[in-house]
What does this fold into?
Amino acid sequence: MKKLFVLVSVLLLVASFALTANAETPKTYIVGIIQMADNGAFTDMREGYIARMRELGYGEDVMTFDYQNAQGDMTNLASICQAMIAENVDYVVTIATPPSQAFLNMDSGIPQFFISVSNPVGAGLITEMAHPDKGCTGTSNAIPVEEMFKLSEKLTPGCKTYGLIYCTSEINSVTTINNAKAYMDANGLSYVEAVVTNSGEVQQAAQSLVGRVDAMFIPNDSVVQTALTAVAEVAKDAKIPVYGSSAVMVASGAFATISISDTQIGQMTADMSGQFLSGTPIAQIPAVVVSDFVMVINKTTADAIGVTLTDEVLAEAKIIE
It folds into this structure.
């Protein structure tokens, strides 16, 4: 009887140690982050996402981020997606449209959260924003085209012809450009298109518009954004205002924009990931369009192209020197 008592006590003690060990060992996660190219907007989105996850309690001891950048190369992007699948990450975060499409098309079954996709439905990531049906949800930064042209009329009145620089292989760019053209057609404005296939063609595209347009409009296009400084320099020399689609474009030399906060959209996607990790299925986490916009103006560019900013505008806008 004494031996049986000792054996039971030992077994209970072992079980207690096991339960304690399990209770003290939190689940750990490996999260893949896929970015198409280097630019400040994508960096702010990524850092906003990571910082928010840390705030939600997923510190370095719990969550490791495997960040990969395709450097603008589609072949690299495909290899990165395949590597993430082979690594069997717990979920992936894809920044902008090309990486989001590339990973989803791998049909891996790995949960996916996208950041800053202008047209998630058109990109094939989701059938309905309110009802994610492909194991994928996230945030959309649909560009407020009408507000962009109202901004142009406010800051540089009299612009009648706009130059449109974009890459046709990016569905987000095409969607924004089509919306812009529809607006201009309906409001008596003209446009000249300068289509590019890679960042090396962007400067020449901008130069081709000089003397033909009153202003330029750049959609949220990762190819063009990578070479935005070249566009800005061409436009400054020609005294042409460039309206971009992000604060980072303005920081890179574009004149002005109506923009979301890139850090904030990353944070919002992190909150969605937090819901998932707390047990909410992706199908119950609707994709959302971020609509908290702010006017951003580059004062140095304004001076260079001869635009005088009123006190009202200076008080309203976020000013970049």
In short: The CA atoms of residues 75 and 89 lie 21 Å apart. Residues 29-141+261-289 form a domain with the Rossmann fold fold (CATH 3.40.50.2300).
